[in-house]
Amino acid sequence: MYSILKKETLNTSVIRMVIAAPLVAAKARPGQFVILRVDAAGERIPLTVADYDREKGTVTVIFQTVGATTLALSRLEVGDSLADFVGPLGRATRTEGLRKVAVVGGGVGCAIAYPVAKKLYEQGAEVCCITGFRNRDMVILQQEFAAVSHRLVTLTDDGSFGEKGLVTDALRRLIDSGERYDEVIAIGPLPMMKYVCKLTEEYGIRTVVSMNPVMIDGTGMCGGCRLTVGGEMKFACVDGPEFDGHQVDFDEAMQRSGMYRDEERHAYEAACNLFKKEVQ
Fold first, then answer.
1. Which end of the chain is more exposed for a tag (fewer CB within 10 A), N or C?
2. What average pLDDT score do residues 183-208 get?
């Protein structure tokens, strides 16, 4: 069993947990993910490795409470255990040889962007981090990003924290001011990544995105996480989760991501009602 060693609420819907998983921690690298089950009857969900400590044998995950399983996970406390915690899965982020990188994170996607920025910073690259959120209440990981950034720009849609605007506004301004990046790494909602890629394509800057489609087994067997990249079918779990953003068919990915929205909402509502009855 995989014990929860630490639990921290980052905002009203985002939680950070530190899990005892020494075998996973021994091999984990930025960009990879795990698949977990809350209990033996639960569904399998993928969560990106937000951090790890090889000496302590721990893996950190950060998740947003948006569905039935993340709701069940959010109700666990320190000392509770997960039924399954499988990984690391997927390909790690390529960081070698990069000297100057812009890491762009949107919303809870910042939890995935942070370990990538940290690895680049530790390797001696010049790291510019651009993080975007809807409002002040949704901001996460500011201290963590500040510690691994040579420049940190934070934006909110309504201007309640940092600058007012979108991550693409800040990225364009930096490029137009003369900043030259070997690569841009964008991680966040599909529309955000799409428009970051449209922007960088104008300037001919290689851009990598992290894709998180529906995923079941994490080994390429189910085909649920398929994407079209460069006109070819790819599986996010084994070919990714990171891809050349200029080659990803974002419109198709967005269409597929909404296929089970009604079912997900019904499952979440049912879980909420069940938990309410338990409390009563």
1. C
2. 95
